[in-house]
């Protein structure tokens, strides 16, 4: 996507919905033991708004070629060193705000961007959205750690 174009226009409705469903499931899976999810405001209830502000798919074929062919692999490594982004990997950015559901008082807010890795521990090279999904999982795990920290409990394993 060009910087001025929304990634939503480049992805199909099905892809966007699948990504948002994945993000929701990752958040719920990682926080289900720490929080109770509810659907209405109340005392002791936190309202969390999350906005996926950027998502760029990886270029699967280009990613694979630049991972195994020596010349493109060397170029990708140099690009990673100079630009902090390897060739053909995806990325994602998010904004989050947590407020007290009754008073509206801001409890937390954050913005982050994650850039995909060339090599992961999974065999997922054929998933063009692997970097975006990895970012979702990272953010969900970080959210769990923040909740546990805010509750003054020891960090989970």
Q: In sequence order, what are the helices and strands, one letter per element?
A: HHEHHEEH
Determine the number of helices (DSSP H or I, runs of at least 4 residues): 5
* Rg (C-alpha, Å): 18 Å
Class from secondary-structure proportions: alpha+beta
Give the helix proportion (percent range).
Answer: 40-55%
Low-pLDDT windows of residues: 59-69
Q: How do the strands and helices of this protein lay out in sequence?
A:
Layout: H1 7-10, H2 13-31, E1 46-56, H3 60-68, H4 70-83, E2 91-100, E3 106-115, H5 130-150
Antiparallel strand pairs: 1-2, 2-3
Helix pairs in contact: 2-5, 3-4
Care to describe what's here?
The chain has 157 residues and is α+β, with helices and mostly antiparallel strands. Helix content is 43%, strand content 20%. It has a three-stranded antiparallel β-sheet with strand order 1-2-3, with helices on one face. A hairpin with a 5-residue loop joins β2 and β3. Residues 59-69 have low confidence and may be disordered.
Give a nutshell description of this structure.
This protein is of the alpha+beta class.
How would you describe this structure in keywords?
single chain; 157 residues; alpha+beta; three-stranded antiparallel sheet; 5 helices; globular
């Amino acid at each position: 996507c060009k910087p001025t174009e929304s990634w939503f226009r480049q992805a199909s409705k099905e892809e966007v919905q699948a990504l948002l469903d994945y993000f929701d499931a990752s958040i719920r899976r990682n926080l289900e033991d720490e929080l109770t999810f509810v659907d209405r405001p109340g005392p002791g209830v936190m309202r969390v708004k999350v906005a996926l502000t950027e998502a760029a798919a990886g270029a699967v074929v280009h990613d694979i070629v630049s991972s195994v062919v020596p010349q493109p692999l060397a170029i990708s490594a140099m690009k990673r060193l100079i630009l902090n982004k390897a060739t053909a990997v995806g990325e994602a950015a998010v904004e989050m705000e947590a407020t007290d559901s009754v008073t509206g008082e801001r409890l937390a807010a954050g913005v982050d961007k994650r850039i995909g890795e060339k090599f992961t521990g999974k065999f997922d090279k054929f998933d063009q959205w692997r970097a975006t999904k990895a970012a979702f999982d990272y953010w969900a795990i970080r959210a769990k750690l923040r909740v546990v920290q805010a509750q003054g409990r020891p960090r989970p394993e």
